[in-house]
């Protein structure tokens, strides 16, 4: 029971993990051109979560042990290496996104490496106790996130303009030349990294509540993202929402409560900070468990610091603007897509093998009964 | 123990955002707050006029008078940099609520101004945009002879106006231009004769593709507000000694069988009735007058814009009229204008 998460903790963790940078409602993350890709992203999220739910229900050993049992040991090591590459490509991206947000909105003159080192140190000390501290932290931060989303939506009602919604739906026709490029982006971004949850399959305390966990986290995430995007859309309007970098931040900046309280967009900064913190925590945890698998370690303590230093260097090497960061994503996305499909295919293969075994056992039992 | 650890981590997260703020540390006296910007185009170069307060500290006496700081540059960003350099303190744009665009700049296009808002993240997206009736923004800002900020007066005038309070905010301006709709902005002029209110909206500037195309007169402004369902109180002079205040309840627009049906519902309040006219007659007089000016307004409107100007209205009207305007000219539709006025004892607002 030690080092496992309760139902509440895992739900909060998954929600904050999925919210991640979507908490600022950045439209570019869903699609460069069309609102329809938002729906494609959500459908992909649903499919991935469904497969993970079945996997979780069938196996108790964890992802790597299941692969060892169902396929073989070298294959599990290959999967581990591929996971490490996947995580190493994505952590600097998310970290840089957060750092650029801090840089452009709060700390204009501060060197970017200072908050980067502080954040990585926080993540390291937080993960020293394993995944449990991330789970506990997520339950606390989830409430504050909900409160902030609620406050920033309710007090904005005076700025809502229904015409904006009308223009948004008018633009929901897919007829552009970059269809494949956009669908591939929607495939991996912003929810494609949900495959990492496969590594959590042995961390859930009560497996009987797996259905509740997946349904609740999926529904709550969709509702929250729906609220964020609808609010931004009603305030800022459709063409503008995809032109600016942090729509939630800008939209909250326009709200004023009476004549005395205005410009409280900084709270969105806290929201983004916490959501990305949890996301990165999970990424580092997955990296840690993959390293354990590759090197057959039972515990990792100080060795992982080298990995944190690598991430620090990679983050600082990434471009210093959001648009260029999206270009970086376009370079690496094909690896991310192929890897995601590969992992999902592996999970499905394991599920089918288990199902066949179950059928064979059933037949055998029937034979014995006769 | 775990809860304590979690609380410590949360506290650390809060503090981590403030601990490394030393590079961005700035005392309030080292900041120069700009309250409005005037942007002009002079001989292919850009000119920015920034309205700020000139603070003088005479021992216990502190006096603050408005001051206009001027800067020029080949591009708008260069002019902005020069403006930054002309202040001894840090230029702070976070309190800039108004941007006035000069006539020449409006004619050549306002896209550069919108880019400035995107780039300078301290400028807010709900900053109000306005134009000048004629001349440059700098001239208009320098006309203010009082000790108060001219931007404060202009902002009060704009915020009181239901049509412009939303439409000329930068986030709405960008959407309007991007959706290829005609943009309307107030044209401000300085008029000393009105009671204390020196800056007023004299005309409406209509932009197409981000460039000033033509201006609508102030008289037409009232009927435009009626048509687009923007509520407010309007004064009508019916006869000598018979003055009425009217307040729009609701306007609905619809198109059926090539007929543009306009239903307007008003509340009326008798301000002055020296000729002692009967209420029924007053009501029909108001109705006739509003019908007349509405017809005149629709017929005189430029064909190119009348059509899409009606789309520039609030939700109720927009949903009725959207996608139904199939003909190119508004004059091609038959017009049916129904005006209903109810006289009441008191007027809201």
Structure, explained:
The complex is a heterodimer of chains A (370) and B (349). Chain A is mainly alpha-helical. Chain A has helices at 7-19, 36-58, 63-70, 73-105, 113-127, 131-154, 162-170, 179-188, 210-236, 238-241, 247-253, 266-295, 304-317, 322-369, and strands spanning 256-257, 261-262. Helix content of chain A is 72%, strand content 1%. Chain A has a two-stranded antiparallel sheet. In chain A, a hairpin with a 3-residue loop joins strand 1 (256-257) and strand 2 (261-262). In chain A, helix 4 (73-105) packs antiparallel against helix 12. Chain A is globular, with a radius of gyration of 21 Å. The mean pLDDT of chain A is 85. By secondary structure, chain B is of the alpha/beta class. Helices cover 35% and strands 35% of the residues of chain B. In chain B, strands 1, 2, 3, 4, 5, 6, 7, 8 and 9 form a nine-stranded mixed beta sheet that branches. A four-stranded mixed beta sheet of chain B has the order 10-11-12-13, with helices on both faces. Chain B is globular. Chain B starts with a helix and ends in a 6-residue tail after the last strand. In chain B, 34% of the residues are buried. The chains are: A mainly alpha (370), B alpha/beta (349).
């Amino acid at each position: 029971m030690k080092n496992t998460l309760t139902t509440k903790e895992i739900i909060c963790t998954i929600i904050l993990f999925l919210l991640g940078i979507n908490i600022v409602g950045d439209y570019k993350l869903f699609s460069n051109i069309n609102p329809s890709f938002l729906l494609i992203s959500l459908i992909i999220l649903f499919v991935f979560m469904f497969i993970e739910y079945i996997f979780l229900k069938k196996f108790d050993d964890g992802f790597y042990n299941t692969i060892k049992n169902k396929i073989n040991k070298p294959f599990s090591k290959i999967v581990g290496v591929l996971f490490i590459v996947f995580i190493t490509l994505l952590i600097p991206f998310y970290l840089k996104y957060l750092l650029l947000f801090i840089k452009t909105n709060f700390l204009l003159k501060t060197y970017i490496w200072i908050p980067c080192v502080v954040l990585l140190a926080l993540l390291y000390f937080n993960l020293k106790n394993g995944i449990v501290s991330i789970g506990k932290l997520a339950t606390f931060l989830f409430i504050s996130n909900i409160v902030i989303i609620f406050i920033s939506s309710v007090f904005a009602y005076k700025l809502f303009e229904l015409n904006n919604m009308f223009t948004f739906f008018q633009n929901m026709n897919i007829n552009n030349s970059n269809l494949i490029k956009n669908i591939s982006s929607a495939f991996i971004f912003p929810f494609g990294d949900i495959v990492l949850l496969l590594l959590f399959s042995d961390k859930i305390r009560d497996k009987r509540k797996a259905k509740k966990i997946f349904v609740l986290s999926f529904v709550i995430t969709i509702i929250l993202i729906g609220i964020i995007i609808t609010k931004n859309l009603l305030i800022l309007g459709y063409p503008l929402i995809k032109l600016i970098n942090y729509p939630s931040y800008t939209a909250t900046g326009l709200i004023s409560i009476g004549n005395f309280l205005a410009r409280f967009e900084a709270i969105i900064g806290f929201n983004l900070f916490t959501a990305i913190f949890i996301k990165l925590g999970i990424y580092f945890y997955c990296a840690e468990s993959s390293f354990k698998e590759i090197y057959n370690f039972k515990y990792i303590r100080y060795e992982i610091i080298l990995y944190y230093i690598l991430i620090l260097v990679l983050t600082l090497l990434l471009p210093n603007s959001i648009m260029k960061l999206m270009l970086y994503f376009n370079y690496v996305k094909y690896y991310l897509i192929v890897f995601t499909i590969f992992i999902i295919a592996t999970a499905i293969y394991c599920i089918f093998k288990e199902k066949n075994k179950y059928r064979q056992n059933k037949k055998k039992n029937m034979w014995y009964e006769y | 123990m775990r809860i304590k650890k979690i609380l410590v981590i949360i506290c650390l997260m809060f503090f981590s955002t403030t601990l490394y703020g030393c590079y961005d540390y700035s005392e309030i006296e080292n900041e120069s707050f700009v309250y409005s910007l005037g942007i002009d185009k002079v001989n292919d170069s850009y000119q920015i006029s920034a309205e700020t307060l000139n603070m003088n500290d005479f021992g216990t006496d502190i006096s603050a008078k408005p001051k206009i700081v001027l800067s020029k540059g080949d591009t708008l960003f260069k002019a902005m940099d020069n403006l930054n350099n002309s202040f001894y303190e840090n230029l702070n744009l976070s309190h800039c609520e108004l941007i006035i665009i000069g006539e020449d700049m409006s004619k050549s296009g306002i896209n550069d101004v919108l880019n400035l808002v995107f780039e300078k993240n301290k400028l807010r997206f709900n900053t109000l945009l306005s134009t000048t009736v004629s001349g440059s923004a700098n001239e208009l800002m320098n006309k203010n002879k009082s000790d108060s900020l001219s931007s404060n007066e202009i902002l009060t005038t704009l915020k009181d106006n239901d049509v412009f309070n939303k439409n000329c905010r930068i986030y709405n301006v960008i959407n309007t231009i991007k959706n290829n709709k005609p943009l309307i902005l107030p044209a401000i002029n300085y008029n000393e004769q009105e009671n204390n209110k020196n800056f007023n909206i004299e005309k409406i500037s209509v932009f197409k593709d981000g460039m000033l195309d033509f201006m609508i007169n102030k008289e037409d402004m009232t009927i435009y507000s009626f048509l687009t369902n923007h509520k407010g109180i309007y004064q009508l002079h019916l006869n000598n000694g018979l003055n009425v205040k009217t307040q729009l309840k609701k306007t609905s627009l619809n198109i059926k069988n090539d007929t543009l049906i306009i239903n307007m519902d008003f509340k009326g309040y008798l301000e002055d009735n020296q000729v002692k006219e009967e209420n029924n007659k007053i009501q029909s007089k108001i109705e006739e007058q509003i019908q007349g000016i509405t017809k005149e307004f629709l017929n005189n409107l430029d064909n190119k814009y009348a059509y899409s100007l009606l789309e520039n209205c609030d939700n109720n009207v927009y949903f009725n009229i959207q996608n139904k305007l199939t003909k190119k000219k508004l004059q091609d539709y038959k017009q049916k204008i129904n005006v209903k006025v109810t006289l009441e004892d008191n007027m809201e607002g």
